[in-house]
Amino acid sequence: MIDNFIYGTPTQLRFGKGVIKDLPEVLSQYGKRVLMTYGGGSIKKMGLYDEVLRLLKDFTVVELPGIEPNPKYDPSVITGAKLCKEHKIDVILSVGGGSVLDCSKAISVCAKYDGEGWDLISGKVKAKAALPIVDILTLAATGSEYDCGCVISNTAILDKRGYLDELMFPAVSFLDPQYTFSVSAWQTACGTADAINHVLEQFFSFPNSLFNDGIMIAALRSLMTNVKIAIKEPTNYAARSELMYVCSWGCNGILANGSGYSGWPMHSIEHALSAYFDITHGAGLAIITPRWMQEILSERTVERFVTLGKDLFGFDKKLSDKEMAQKVIDEFYAFFESIGIPMHLGTLGVKEEAIEDMADHILANDDTSQDWAYVPLDKAALVRILKASM
Amino acid sequence: MIDNFIYGTPTQLRFGKGVIKDLPEVLSQYGKRVLMTYGGGSIKKMGLYDEVLRLLKDFTVVELPGIEPNPKYDPSVITGAKLCKEHKIDVILSVGGGSVLDCSKAISVCAKYDGEGWDLISGKVKAKAALPIVDILTLAATGSEYDCGCVISNTAILDKRGYLDELMFPAVSFLDPQYTFSVSAWQTACGTADAINHVLEQFFSFPNSLFNDGIMIAALRSLMTNVKIAIKEPTNYAARSELMYVCSWGCNGILANGSGYSGWPMHSIEHALSAYFDITHGAGLAIITPRWMQEILSERTVERFVTLGKDLFGFDKKLSDKEMAQKVIDEFYAFFESIGIPMHLGTLGVKEEAIEDMADHILANDDTSQDWAYVPLDKAALVRILKASM
Asked: Which domain does A40 fall in, by range?
């Protein structure tokens, strides 16, 4: 059954080898004054920075370098918005991964707002306009290139917000898989684990349909197969291209239109882990996944596991539902381990004594115990999942 | 491997029970002067006509009724464009199936053009602007509600054109599966056969990827399962909702981004059949499908059939590739027969003596013999397919 939904993604994807040759033509639609945002030195190392400046020789380019992983409201968003106003910027060009793009999205609305930008990000005020965003992606992971959300931290008030507004859909996303050839095995594994988790957060919901189940299983199969190839052969274009494309489908809702909203509980838990111990998002998600599955396995949810067992893993249909579910959980554990993720939070520096605090933090920030969730998680459940993940 | 592509679909889908309650709010974004287009009496019979007028009591509504299946440039498109200009229409509201919507798309560009509208449709002149289109769909089939194409006939010069322009994406498509409850078993079967064929036209192409194969197989599985339920139980909401959603994915390219363009040969053949004998599009496609498959089966193409055999039908993996392919072809034949489509063109009134002429017509209109096609079809091949379909 496909339940009621509203869906639209206006972003244009320009995918493949050499697509950035069209960058000047695309940007010209919006104007000649560009704010170019990026992170550390990786785009310089791979030659992309020089290539972009060469393509934009007829544009006025203002640069905002040094955007952090987990981008910060202060200084990055504030500085970017100020630059846009001062230089009368027409369009923002984000060059990098999901963090640079998330920051650029926040800048796009703050640049068109006269008050305090945090009022938009924190949901106090609804944005009325945004600068157009074009991006060149260098990491397959978050799906930010095809959705209208961003996650921004405000360290001054110890706040971290997920912020959604349709004004922030990128106008055009340039996706050239070659720019991901130099992504390390660790970042490839963690980025893919993030995308796999995006699919699973949506798969465990109701109502279900043959179509949505099928496209989500197609996404999981593609991600789980191609990440292994990409880790072994970093310049394998076929594998990198599938990873890049499938990751883009992760977060804009298209995988589960009409399937309800599960609450994205594993993301709620991981956000606390990252806030307390600054661990890599995808690694945290991978570690939590099988433990969360074990916690929520019940007579009511077992059908989801059985569908994964039969249609994703091709397990023997003669197994009992319970046996099938356990094999699915074990298979995800073994898979994440096989791509190099240490499957214990302790290895990443998480301290057992923080678990109670983190559980309180999760309930305070994204109340996972509410009864509309696919499986509500109260404090005891959160503590069990975190302890099992140590 | 995902090859280079450019993709974007700006249309917003508003899906589910009762969604048209938001029609006034949606239309108001564009203005208060509406051209309402529709076909025969079915929207009156089901009460939708009265419901729409009730919702639009604060709007100025100009009506264009009587749009034909296979919509005509003269009178429908010409009349519609003239009404838009005379009444300073702000937005077109299409209420009906794919034909009404296709006609409305053509009207949307002709209304903003001062010359002869056929120059746009025939590709002589590129459109510069279009009126926005909102639609309420009453038939799951063509996917026109989520693409930017239309097919328009010009009977005066015996021409029928497929016309694509990004200006013609509907702004908003209202999809309430309840409006398809009264669709007859025959139209349900033919509409679904059309959508199944849209998927197959894209599945038989290269390069392939796990993800695209998986989403296309998910679409086929959902369509083939749910059409049987909907024929047996016309008011089964779960089945009607999946059919409606999946059909929308058929034609905008999303199923096969980066998989190349196959040439859509079965559609080329069917367009000739409809032009000569005015048969129902979906029925023609269903009859051609297994015969086209038989014609193109070769060592080069057999892998496509094997993938369908294993992943869609779950056939025994121990079968040889050739046996598997033959079983796939036989299964599609049996499936279309099982949903009530007579599997011989003769039964629909097609005359064997027209086959040579139709083959010439196909080559003249959509040259299926070009070597970029997935499998080029010369005149002899077209004649073999048509004869086998009799």
From this structure: 12-179
